[in-house]
Design goal:
Strand content: 5-15%
Oligomer: single chain
Helix content: 40-55%
Subcellular location: Cell membrane
Largest sheet: 9 strands, mixed
Structural class: alpha+beta
Strand order of the largest sheet: 12-31-30-29-13-25-28-27-26
GO biological process, one term: potassium ion import across plasma membrane
Keywords: ATP-binding, Cell membrane, Membrane, Nucleotide-binding, Translocase, Transmembrane, Transmembrane helix
GO molecular function: ATP binding; ATP hydrolysis activity; P-type sodium:potassium-exchanging transporter activity
InterPro entries: ATPase_P-typ_cation-transptr_C, ATPase_P-typ_cation-transptr_N, ATPase_P-typ_cyto_dom_N, ATPase_P-typ_P_site, ATPase_P-typ_TM_dom_sf, ATPase_P-typ_transduc_dom_A_sf, ATPase_P-type_domA, Cation_transp_ATPase_P-type
């Protein structure tokens, strides 16, 4: 085709042929295409705002008066209402875009269209640099520090005239520098986060399969152009707006991201609605294919797609605070409130007392500086940096363990998870199935024994036994790669684990190859397996026999009544779903199928239960002959009427046998479950498998402790078996602790779950070991919400499309890297390799919270309490202020910052996962115990030692404490400014050195310093950070230029070494406290431990 297009509005008047349709008699049925595709990109961006999900409603009423000038969303609605691709036929759509349905675009065409239309990508949102810069500067404590700097400038001039103090100017400049440094750090963090998210997107594939130059080609989604024919399969995101030109009967799309409608929409060839968002012959970019397959004609890409147009309207996204952010905000509010109260108290005392009684003691500029000092001293300026660094460090560590976090905020949520709901297949098991057992009626076989029986039995028995492998081959969505023959172990199979295992089973038991059996049948309709119906169905017609084939293709038997034109319906699925649809069963030695009586049904169920109890996944295979006259002569195979017809024909089936499949447990699962349960996390299984199979796997994994004592739904329904009613408080306790009664195990199906009352759900949620079996996606979602409503912080793991709703609703959704991109997009984290990495994620999630508590505990004694004491003594006792205002700022923003940041790099303590999860409702980041440790223990010791050292220094220089107490400025002449500056520097360095002891003590909450020493291999940042803190203090105190500006001074050498003994004593005292906590966990000291 030589013609090309320059824009989407030009119609090429060239007739194209329709896609090939197979004609069977008078029945026109479109053959289903076999598609393969790589996973598409996971986009961790925020979901569209809710208001844009009503776009379809606006389109219904988009016919505005001619003169209306709509802007914003109205303009977008008008653009969408002008689209008519759903109105035109498939032929006309192909003509518009000058493309052949058989060969697709030519390479030259595609290149020209790429140059004209550009890549299939959404434009980057506006950077809003001014808003970002303002956020970097004024965010966090920036606004407060900037205001404090302005006050200091005012205190210097004009309020300080005629003798402005240089120290006030220096303080103002230092605060301004801190604001700039915090802004630079915020900007760096913003850039780093964007870079991390870009790298995550780059690690996940974003390819699609298109038809170009007559061949299927894998291309990046960004390379699509209008006119491309793109293949769509289950679990794939639609890469562009496409007009469907070929669909399977079960093609379904989840359009909730655009319309808010959670019910999947079927795919059709013809228009079903005038609204382009509602019609079923259009697949929109960003929507998810949840079942079936199809072929679509790309007509819009990038910003021109419906998704792109709506995204343009999303100028801002609402951001809610995470649990940790709320905790930090609460802590800052408490500290700021205390600082404000103290500042107000000082102002009141100054105005009501000091100004009247001692008018020359504190002037207005000094008062302002004191107020600023109190405010800055109380607020831990290093905390915001420590929070971000801690989260980023943990996320980086998790990435080394092949755990990808879509956002830093999700890391802290892991620490409080107390309920873990895990899928079974592909998560707990290897998803590498093989058929272990087979049964024909009540005769059971291993694969090898069934093969031997097929080779040695009588022809009539062989005719019945071959039904099972033959139907296994026909009703199968997997396929061998290539056409070469050979042992099944050397032939690669394309398909899911279940179908692949059954196909290998069929190939192993079929003389020659199962490909020859499948070649005798041509599918005219297929319904793939899904988690709701729990079965797969194929409707096939026989291929006319040739010289090399017999007249009656397998699995047809001598007792079948099969006329020319009849079709074969084969079904494979869960026994509890299909047995009710069956009326007969094939028996090995019978000349015709037996009636499926109650006794016969019980025999089959007994085999199913026996295999399920051994951890087998049991599937029943059945078939029936569909007479030609049961189908209307003319019917649209894509209509809902045809779907209803097929559902009606899926009855009166003949059971040909059962297969028992084994999906081996992953080798690391038992240990992972043991660690999680030891950490106080209740580990549940939520699966679509049979209850007995799920319990068996759960028992092997250690999720069920005693399989013989498992409760069932009847134990909930029978109120007489419940001796004590479980209160809602007990249910919440169950979600917070593993030591709760009752601790029984229970297995319950999704159908049984729907029959429970709220009171019975309360009882169910109090169990410690739960297996949810035969669950649908909606029921999985209900389970998550039920646990959350009862105080649970829920993590969900899964890998399939059916897991996506629960993954999205969970507090922390965790997808497997090998799973569908639907699951990966819905999740908050992705485990790229081993499931055991979840243990590392849980441990480091708790570590974030622990390390932030340590950071706060380190910052408060010197940076808050010990700085406040000199101000209070100066105001209340009239003694000179033993710590200058500039030195307070230096402690907060210089000497304490690096050691505080080193706390964020602390590794997990031993026993971190032996503690119960954090109760997000009750346990606070800064609780009473932590404040008692910070102020009542560390703060008092540091303040007393620093105060004693500074007053001792004055006494040695001839100024005893009695000569300055209650003097309010009337100090002896011996107390010169230089001597006061020395005493203040002594106080300063005593705090700096004693913070070494605080640092080494606070590094661990319970472990001894000998168990977790500050060595290079444990935390290489601790010792350098402590040394740097001292060097920073020396720099500002010993460089002569700072003596006048910052009013600092040199100090005698002994004032460096004596505080070291104080720091050592502080370590000894805290080590004693930790020893009591470890050895006497029921003691008062242990109860008071932070």
């Amino acid at each position: 085709m030589s013609h090309d297009i320059e824009n989407q509005g030009i119609t090429i008047a060239q007739t194209q042929s329709r896609p090939h349709h197979a004609v069977h008699g008078d029945i026109t049925l479109t053959a289903r295409r076999t598609l393969s595709i790589q996973a598409s990109a996971v986009q961790p961006s925020a979901r569209l705002p809710v208001e844009f999900r009503t776009m379809s409603l606006h389109l219904e009423n988009s016919k505005a008066p001619a003169g209306s000038n709509g802007k914003g969303s109205k303009g977008a609605v008008k653009d969408l209402s002008d689209l008519d691709w759903h109105h035109v036929s498939v032929d006309e759509a192909l003509q518009r875009l000058a493309v052949s349905p058989k060969t697709g675009l030519e390479a030259a065409q595609a290149q020209r269209r790429v140059a004209h239309f550009g890549p299939n990508q959404l434009s980057k949102p506006p950077s809003r640099m001014l808003r970002k810069v303002l956020g970097w500067v004024f965010g966090g404590f920036g606004s407060l520090l900037l205001a404090a700097s302005v006050v200091c400038f005012l205190a210097w001039k004009p309020l300080g005239n005629p003798n402005p103090q240089a120290s006030n100017l220096a303080l103002a400049v230092v605060l301004l520098v801190v604001v700039v440094l915090q802004a630079i750090f915020n900007a760096w963090q913003d850039f780093s986060t964007s870079r991390v998210m870009a790298s995550i997107q780059g690690m996940l594939p974003a390819d699609v399969v298109v038809l170009r130059d007559g061949a299927q080609t894998t291309l990046p989604a960004a390379a699509l152009v209008p006119g491309d024919l793109v293949q769509i399969v289950m679990g794939q995101k639609v890469p562009a707006d496409v007009r469907l030109i070929d669909v399977s009967g079960d093609l379904r799309f989840d359009r909730s991201v655009l319309t808010g409608e959670s019910e999947p929409i079927s795919g059709r060839l013809d228009k079903t609605n005038d609204n382009i968002l509602e019609t079923k012959n259009i697949a929109l970019q960003g929507t998810l294919c949840v079942s079936g397959s199809g072929l679509g004609l790309v007509f819009q890409i990038g910003d021109n797609t419906v998704f792109g147009r709506i995204a343009k309207l999303s100028s801002t996204a609402s951001v809610s605070m995470t649990t940790l952010q709320r905790e930090i905000f609460r802590f800052v509010v408490i500290i700021a409130s205390l600082a404000t109260l103290v500042a107000i108290l000082i102002v009141i005392l100054w105005a009501a007392w000091l100004r009247q009684s001692f008018p020359s003691y504190i002037n207005t500029p000094t008062l302002l500086i004191d107020v600023v000092s109190v405010m800055v001293a109380f607020i831990p300026e290093g905390l915001p940096i420590a929070v971000t660094l801690s989260l980023a460090k943990v996320a980086h560590t998790l990435s080394k363990h092949k755990v990808l976090c879509k956002s830093l905020s999700i890391v802290e949520t892991l620490g409080s998870v107390n309920v873990l709901c895990s899928d079974k297949t592909g998560t707990l098991t290897q998803n590498k199935m093989h058929v272990e057992d087979a049964a024909v009626y009540d005769a059971t076989f291993t694969v090898s024994s069934l093969r031997e029986r097929l080779e040695s039995a009588q022809p009539s028995v062989i005719e019945n036994l071959r039904q099972l492998p033959t139907v296994s081959a026909i009703c199968n969505a997997a396929a061998f790669e290539g056409t070469s023959s050979g042992p099944d172990s050397k032939r690669n199979v394309i398909g899911d684990a279940t179908d692949s295992a059954i196909l290998k089973f069929a190939d192993d038991l079929t003389s020659g190859s199962c490909d020859s059996v499948r070649a005798r049948w041509q599918h005219v309709h297929k319904i793939p397996f899904n988690s709701k119906t729990k079965f797969m169905l194929t409707l096939s017609e026989a291929v006319p026999p040739t010289e090399n084939t017999g007249p009656l293709p397998a699995p047809l038997a001598s007792w079948d009544s099969f006329a020319p034109g009849d079709l074969l319906l084969c079904v494979k699925g869960a026994p509890d779903v299909l047995l009710s649809r069956c009326t007969r069963v094939v028996a090995p030695g019978s000349d015709k199928p037996l009636n499926l009586t109650y006794a016969a049904r019980q025999r089959i169920i007994a085999i199913q239960e026996q295999w399920a109890a051994q951890g087998r996944r049991v599937l029943v295979l059945a078939r029936r002959v569909v007479a030609r006259d049961l189908l209307p002569k003319k019917i649209d195979s894509y209509s809902e009427e045809f779907d209803e017809l097929i559902d009606g024909l899926n009855s009166d089936l003949i059971i040909v046998g059962l297969v028992g499949l084994i999906d081996p447990l992953k080798h690391d699962i038992p240990e992972t479950v043991r660690i999680c349960r030891g950490a106080g996390i209740r580990f549940f299984v939520v699966t679509g498998d049979h209850p007995a199979t799920a319990v068996a796997i759960a028992s092997q994994a250690g999720i069920i402790s005693n399989p013989a004592a498992v409760h069932h739904a009847s134990d909930l329904l029978d109120r007489g078996s419940i001796k004590e009613k479980v209160s809602s408080a007990e249910v919440e306790v169950a979600c917070d602790s593993s030591d709760v009664s009752p601790s029984q195990s229970i297995v319950i199906t999704g159908a049984e779950l729907e029959t429970l009352s709220s009171e019975q759900e309360d009882i169910l949620c109090a169990y410690q070991e739960i297996v949810f079996a035969r669950t649908t996606p909606e029921q999985k979602l209900h389970i998550v919400r039920a646990m959350q409503a009862r105080g649970g912080v829920v993590a969900v793991t899964g890998d399939g499309v059916n897991d996506a709703p629960a993954l999205r609703a969970a507090d922390c959704g965790i997808a497997m890297g090998s799973g569908s991109d639907v699951a990966r997009e819905a999740a908050d984290m992705v485990l790229l390799e081993d499931f055991s990495a979840i243990v590392v994620a849980l441990e480091y999630g708790r570590l974030v919270y622990d390390n932030l508590k340590k950071t706060i505990l380190y910052l408060l004694p010197a940076g808050s309490f010990s700085e406040l004491m000199p101000i209070l003594l100066n105001v209340l006792l009239g003694v000179p202020q033993m710590l200058s205002n500039i030195q307070m700022i230096l402690i907060c923003v210089a000497t304490d910052v690096l050691p505080a940041l080193s706390m964020c790099l602390e590794p997990p303590e031993s026993g971190l996962l032996a503690r119960p999860p954090r109760n997000v409702r009750k346990e606070r980041l800064a609780n009473v115990r932590l404040l008692l440790q910070a102020y009542g223990f560390l703060g008092i010791i540091e303040s007393l030692c620093a105060m004693a050292m500074s007053f001792w220094h004055l006494q040695r220089r001839g100024v005893p404490f009695s000569s300055i107490a209650l003097k309010f400025g009337n100090y002896p002449e011996a107390l010169t400014n230089d001597l006061l500056f020395e005493a203040q520097s002594v106080y300063f360095f005593t705090l700096v050195v004693m913070q070494w002891g605080n640092l080494l003590s606070t590094r661990t909450r319970r472990s001894s310093i000998f168990q977790q020493p500050p060595t290079w291999g444990v935390n290489r940042a601790v010792v350098p950070a402590a040394i740097c803190a001292l060097l920073i203090g020396i720099f500002f105190s010993y460089v002569p230029i700072f003596h006048k500006i910052f009013q600092t001074s040199n100090i005698p050498a002994e004032h460096f070494f004596i505080p070291m003994t104080f720091a050592l004593a502080l370590i000894v005292l805290d080590e004693t406290r930790k020893l009591i906590v470890r050895n006497y966990p029921q003691s008062l000291i242990a109860w008071l431990a932070w």
